[in-house]
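PROTEIN FOLDING TASK:
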Amino acid sequence: MSLLGSRAVFTPTLLACYAITAAVHVASIVLNTLLPLHVADLGGTKTQVGLLFSVMTVVSMFLRPTVGGWVDRFGARPVIAPGIAALALTTLALQLAATPVTIIVLMIGLGVANGLISTPASVLTALSSPAAHRGEALGTYYLASSLGVAIGPPLAFGLRAVGGMRLAFAMVTVMAVLLVLVVARLPSGAARPAASARAPRLISRSALPVSFALVLSTIGHSSVFAFLPLYALGRGETAALAWFFAIYPAWLITWRALLRGVSDRLGHFRVGLFAMSVVAVAYLIIALPPTPLSLALAALVLASGNALLYPTLAALVVDRAPESERGLALGTLSGAWDLGVVIGSTLIGAVADRYSYAAGFAVGGAFAAMGVGALALGIRRGAAVARYVGSPNSDVIRADAASADMSASLGRRS
């Protein structure tokens, strides 16, 4: 294996998927960075600024599992194409939006676009990669996403300085047109597994244990970006806060690049459990009184956990899902991430209001620790069920349970 990784994760189809997710994240971050400023310039309130993200996240959350099921039935390309159209039309409409309310309504279009583009691209990545390199392929896919997130903010402010919001909106529209060229080169039906005779489901049952654990783990996620600045600035740690937000993305990208294939070698369950545990520890470090040392350590630990967490859990979900509903399984997992963020933004905010920011971060850490337990128990229960019903993935499921040192329990059930 070269420094760049296995050649198996750099096929034309997978390269197209990496380009899609990088472009979508650049476009999304440009809009997410500038739209709050735009709404404020138009006289919008803080509540209206908050609604920008709530509307988009809620739309994506409900759409993702359904979109995953569509990919199972129709393939990825027919689902991505309407998403690109939604992105282009929404950014064109933003050129004409003159009130905060209009912009908030248009966020529905961005939520639809995000759900229709991102979820099929991740499914296509999972299904187009060899099983032995699935974790590495998904790690590369989310590395491309991270690079897009890193590029977005400076690009956004540069566009705003040169040509204002109109130039920023036009750039995203142009990116949507370029995405058409990338998607057109995807093989038709590239992510279309064997058809299933079952009626379409709203969510994947096989993905529920991992998805539930992910919800618990991501409850604290939004608190880092929403409340950590207020916490640190309130303690006079302005410079330390700047170091946190410099270290976190740099280490996330570095760690994700270096360890993309580690879950394929050590096991998706083991690495996922480790990553979730690291995230829980990170939230507890953030809850400490902020100092330059504590915030730098928190950035390193949180980035180390998040670099591995979602790509590894995505690979684990695909391993355990029937072939005919792997898109639905990934859509269920993706919706779980959004659900955890939505719950956490409200819950952690309420705890911070009632008690303190530190208490809010500690609650996020406690829920992440509960996620570790939920993941281990979910794998154990899934192995027991697979043993009885003869799941086609029972070997994988039982191997995951053995990783959790539960083979003795399974033996007693035989």
